[in-house]
Amino acid sequence: MVICPNCGEENPERARFCLNCATPLAETPSVRERKLVTVLFADVTGSTSLGERLDPERLKDVMSAYFDAMREEISG
Q1: Sequence ranges of the domains in the chain
Q2: Predicted confidence pLDDT, tens digits, the chain (76 residues)
Q3: Of residues 29, 37, 9, 31, the one with CA closest to residue 21
Q4: pTM, rounded to two decimals
Q5: HSE on the CB side for 66, CA within 13 Å?
Q6: What are phi and psi of 24, to 5 degrees?
């Protein structure tokens, strides 16, 4: 059992917050991990004006086709 430092309530071991007053019971140790990542930014030139001209569903279809093609090229 874990005793709440705020109200004295007994809580099960797995409780992260007091079941009576919601006080955090124990900090979970943060596991730091370093990862190498790659970030790709793509500005779709003209997409704003395209969005103003097309119906939202049609714009979604056009952009989905673009992203599918780019995903294939990048993952290829």
Answers
A1: 1-27, 39-76
A2: 999 999 999 999 999 999 999 999 987 666 888 999 989 888 889 999 999 999 999 999 999 999 999 999 998 7
A3: 9
A4: 0.48
A5: 12
A6: -60, 135
